[in-house]
Each structure stands twice: as structure tokens, then as C-alpha cells.
Amino acid sequence: MTVVDAESFCDYCLERKSDLIAAQLSQNASSLLSAKKSGRPAIMWACAGGSIDIVKQLLQAGFDPKEPDDAMWTCAHICASTGKIELLQVISQYNIDLDAQNEGGQTPLHYACSRNRLEVAEFLLNSCGDVNKQDKHGASPLHRCCSLGHLEVVQKMMQFKAEVNICDSEGNTPLHLACEGNHTKICLELLKSGADATILNKDEKTAVNLAVDHETIRAVKSFEP
User: How many domains does the chain contain in total?
Assistant: First the structure.
């Protein structure tokens, strides 16, 4: 069999071509350990492809699940973003940093919260060191799920004592973003967990000032002193 170039090998990983991967590794494993495409290591393409068997195949061949891509994404970011809980559990056995931040400062938990990956979020919350890590815009994972209306993820974050009054770079708390999105049930969850409805953001606005929906406004006002 002809030995393929690094990018073609990465394509095999993404496209789940296990037989071709095995054949290439049997001939050229040492040089393929550094294979990348678009700045992303082969094992990350395998994670994106979603095959546990292929990821295990690469791990056994010596591929490093801790190696980031050029944008500082890791295998954990890929698994969290795509909701691949089984893959995340496999690679977590290799001492990877589940709190790793990419170029934008986002951790795998940021992506689990953004994409409404409840099972992944719970796994990360049980494994991570910092539930409140902020990205380059000051957004925490809780900001993400509150903004997008993912109630079950918010409830899970509350169980793990996420900071409810943490402010992003605009001075917005998670409650500001929940009000802005008119996510009434999330507003109530935050308020029951100690969110401060009187905090002003950089525009001198409280959370209720950002709400449009009357039900949301009434809910937040009911908690005001």
C-alpha cells in the first residue's frame, strides 16, 4: 500500500476509515504521530469523526490527546462541543487538562454549556478544577447557558455552586443575559441561588432593564428588595 501524506491520514481519521488507518500505521506509524491538517492533529480529527474505536487505535499507537491545534483547541474541546461523552471519558484517562482554554479563553465546559450538552457538562463539572473560568470577554460557562436558555444545564451549574454574580467584560451577570433573552425560568433559578438583581452593568443597567417580556420583568422584580 502507498504511504499517504499527513493530510490524507487526517481525512481517514475524520471519515472513520479504520482499515486504511490501520494499514498506514502498520507501515508508517512513527512519522504519522505528527500528522496534522489545517493545524489540527490527527487525533483531533478522529475525535471530530466520533469513532471511539479509531480514537483508541490512535491512542494505542502513541498519538497524544493532550496536543492542541493551532487555535489551542484540544480533544476535550472537540468532544464537549459535539457532545461525545464516551470519547471524552476515554481521553480523560490520559491526564488531559479538562480546564484548558483555547485562544478565545473558552474551556470545554464553555462549549458544553453553549451547545446544551447536559451529560458532558455534568462529567466536566465532576472533573474540572474551575467551574467559573472566564473567556477573553469575561464570560463564564454560566453566562453561556443563561444567555442561550439552557435551563437544565443552568440547574446543573447551580448544583456545582457556579458563581451567580460573576461579571463579564461588559459588566453583565448571568442574570443580565437571562433577562435579555427573556428566559424567565432561568432568571428564577438564578435568583433562588442568590443572584443580585440590583447589579449595574457598564451601561448602568440592571438585569430587569434588559428584559422585554412582562413575565420576566415581574419575576425579577418580585426578588428586588
Answer: 1
User: CATH number, domain at 191?
Assistant: 1.25.40.20
Q: Is residue 76 part of a domain?
A: no
Asked if residue 7 belongs to a domain, the reply is: no
CB of 206 within 8 A of CB of 199? yes
pTM over 0.90: yes
Provide the grid cell at 85: 461523552
> Is residue 39 within 8 Å of 68, Cβ to Cβ?
no
With respect to residue 157, please indicate whether it lies within any of the assigned structural domains: yes
Q: Which domain holds residue 199?
A: 140-225
Which H, E and C letters describe the chain, residue by residue?
CCCCCHHHHHHHHHCCCHHHHHHHHHHHHHHHCCCEECCEEHHHHHHHHCCHHHHHHHHHHCCCCCCCCCCCCCHHHHHHHHCCHHHHHHHHHHCCCCCCCCCCCCCHHHHHHHCCCHHHHHHHHHHCCCCCCCCCCCCCHHHHHHHHCCHHHHHHHHHCCCCCCCCCCCCCCHHHHHHHCCCHHHHHHHHHCCCCCCCCCCCCCCCHHHCCCHHHHHHHHCCCC
Residue bearing cell 467584560: 169
Examine residue 28 and state whether it is found in any structural domain, yes or no: no
What single letter denotes the amino acid at residue 35? A
Q: What is the pLDDT of residue 194?
A: 95
Give per-residue pLDDT as tens, 56-68.
Answer: 999 999 999 999 9
